[in-house]
Amino acid sequence: MTSPAGMRRTIRRILLVLGSIVGLWAAGLFLFAASLPRHTPGVDGPPTDGIVVLTGGSERMEVAFGLLRAGKARKLLISGVHKGVALRDLLPVSGAGDVAELECCVVLGYEADNTEGNAVETARWVQREGFHSIRLVTANYHMPRSLVELRRALPGVEVVAHPVAPGSVRLESWWNWPGTAELIISEYNKYVAAMVRAAITNTPADNAG
Questions:
Q1: I need a labelling partner for 9 at 20 to 30 A (CA). Which of 27, 84, 91, 132 fits?
Q2: Residue 137 is part of which domain span?
Q3: What is the model's pTM?
């Protein structure tokens, strides 16, 4: 039977391990937040074969269409489009005069409903088109996890990050803003989970958050 002193030592060891885990998690969280870009880059840089934008905000769409108009790729995939949304519905943020200007260059992807699904949908499109490089457009906080999933689904294909900095996400002193803090913590946890999956398998998961 364990003595009271032995029980106390066991509890202290457990608390020490738990404290170390929490400390590592917190340190990783702050490093993650600090690494997120504060500004959306311009249209400089070499072109890629294609552009992929992950739905989730009009700012992402504006940036993606701007890159397409600047000649940074031949085609644009919009991954994660809701059923019923048509190309004409995107005209307000496209900068195009009519649908005919977009039909040659824009593909709507309706299959994905999460980040892993975006990766699978993108991989199928890239393979079908025979592309060797893509520019990925998504929010800055979403970019790390998206890169993990895209690179896992597309080994051998160059994925260039083009992060969008939403005005509603306040990264300076983010812990003081409840909405941003909740978003950053949630995305960090999902990023860690994606890294773990990537470390143990090369096949994209079928289910995700």
A1: 27
A2: 50-200
A3: 0.86
